[in-house]
Amino acid sequence: MIKVVNISKSFDRPLFEKVNLVISDSERVGLVGANGCGKSTLLKIISGNEKADIGNIQFEEGQKLGYLAQNLEISEIITVGDFLYSRFSELLNMKEEMTSLEDKMAEKSDDTDILERYGQLSSVFESMGGYDIDTKVSRIMDGLDLKIDLKQKASSLSGGQKTRLMLARVLLDGPDILLLDEPTNHLDISSIEWLEKFLLEEVKSALIVSHDRRFLDKVATKVVEIDTESMSLIEYGGNYSDYRAEKERLKERRLQEYKNQQKKFKELERDIARTKGQALKTETETIDSKMRRYSEKVARKAKAREHRLMREMDSENAIQKPEDRKKVKVIFSSTLKQGQTVIDLKDISKSFTNLEVLKDVNLKVRSGERISIIGPNGSGKTTIFRLIMKEIEPDKGKVDVGASVKVGYLSQDYDLPEDERVIDYFRSRVPVMEGEARAYLGCFAFHQESLLRPIGKLSRGEMAKLIISILDADGCDVMLLDEPTNHLDIESMEVVEDALKAYKGAIVVISHDRYFLEKIGIQRSLNLDKHTLTET
Q1: 396, 361, 346: which is closest to 532 by C-alpha?
Q2: 503, 390: one domain
Q3: pLDDT more than 90, % of the chain
Q4: Which end of the chain has less Cβ packing within 10 Å, N or C?
């Protein structure tokens, strides 16, 4: 069990104030909230890698904690095998001594001291799972798709491989409590499903930061949201879908309370106005001094009631209207007929320095169609997009893109002018008046302050949203989206999902986010594995 007790933390601004949280045994908690709200910071505080301004973290005695951060460094010289097997240093030392004793027993088979010592070590080694070390390492490496040589230097791995190596090392530790910061980053769908099963079957309790909503649906028993307005933690029972349903119910209830309050305010305003009107009429139409004094008194009381009402309407107790997400309106749309072929890949093969990536790949995309491409990391999914965009040429086969077809591409590497303001860049790509651009970008949660911000000051998630907003507004016939939900917080994902659901053109998307793929209405799912593309 972990107890977070009255924790507060600020950097240039407060993140959270006097928050409390209990993670019980056998409880897997999903931690959600907008980008920058402090999710990773809270994990760092619990793990001891960051100090809270006030408050403390309480653990049960003897509990082992495992922590996966987003940006952990690995020694330049350590090998993959040494990094993974360092978890078993005690057992490996024991095994080394047992090997030495075996050599001695071969020379002195009747030495009782050696035999006794070997028997003791062997018994302890077996009870601690020493004979299963290699099996454990292989199982976790296979599950996370870490097909790399144990003798390879860890520093030579790609960023995605390093993240998976870190995760493997944390899982091998066998902790009582896991702290996981975006554990599904760089995992393909099969690896995510393996991790879900591992957490359900072999992990006692966990606190997980993740934007993968299907993953949270599978593993979370409770969801905790960092609320940026109150700077507090709000707990919801159940998985992610339960959290969303409860939040929607609370929003509906809040909206009804707001409507009831507004109705009450309007009734009071009408009553006050009626009273003031009657008092004024009496005062102006009567010559009776007693009646005039009475009407003046009534008018003063009405004025006092009016002041009280205005104070109540402006007070913190006044219920604010819950915000409704603005719906994206089409500015320019595709003029192609539904079902018209827009992209046609015929018998495509591609290799890089003798490494075969694609072999006899065929893909036909029709107007309005929605296709997902899934497959293991490094299988060549992005290569297909680069071929369509004519960034590279196939070794064999033909890539046909319709002469009048407008293709928009969101790559994983955003190449945007850092000094240009958001609204200026949008208008340079989409020919609309400034007011229309502001309204449109507002649907993508770009508010007034962020519209004037230089692009270089945006987060990577905001850059992705900006590119998608341009592709949508510019009337592209086809969108090629390469991992569009990378770096997006959940709120931004929902904004993008709403836009893509309304989009009329074709979509081809590379993504391991199953929830996202379902939301945008994927019609065909293709699997790229062993160089070929097949229907799933």
Answers
A1: 361
A2: yes
A3: 45
A4: C
> Under a CB-based contact definition with an 8 Å cutoff, are residues 198 and 143 in contact?
yes
Query: Are 234 and 155 members of one domain?
Result: yes
> Would the pLDDT of 328 be above 70?
no
For residue 56, which of 16, 21, 4 has the smallest C-alpha distance? 4
User: By the 8 A CB rule, do 82 and 169 touch?
Assistant: no
Q: How big is the CA angle at 257 (ends 256 and 262), to the nearest 5 degrees? A: 95
Tokens of 202: 């072999």
Q: What is the pTM of this model?
A: 0.80
> What pLDDT is stored for residue 350 in this prediction?
94
Q: What is the average pLDDT across 367-382?
A: 90
Say how far apart CA 8 and CA 231 lie, in whole Å: 9
Number of structural domains found in the chain: 3
Which of 245, 264, 288 delimits the end of a domain? 245
Residues 411-460 pLDDT 10s: 988 889 999 999 999 999 999 999 999 989 988 888 888 899 999 988 88
- The boundaries of the domain holding residue 256 are 246-314
Residue 332: per-residue pLDDT: 62
Q: Which of 407, 416, 397, 512 is nearest to 456 (CA)?
A: 416
Whole-number Å distance between alpha carbons of 349 and 392: 12
Which 3 state secondary structure label does DSSP give 362? strand
CB burial string 133-170: b at 16+ within 10 A, e below: beebbebbbebbbbebeeeebbeebeeebbbbbbbbbb
Residue 324 per-residue DSSP state: P
Residue 336 lies in a domain: no
Mean of pLDDT values over 168-182: 91
Mean pLDDT, range 390-408, rounded to an integer:
93
Output the pLDDT for position 54: 94
- The tokens describing 86, both together, are 């360092």
Query: Which of 206, 227, 245 is the last residue before a domain boundary?
Result: 245
Tokens of 393: 């040429």
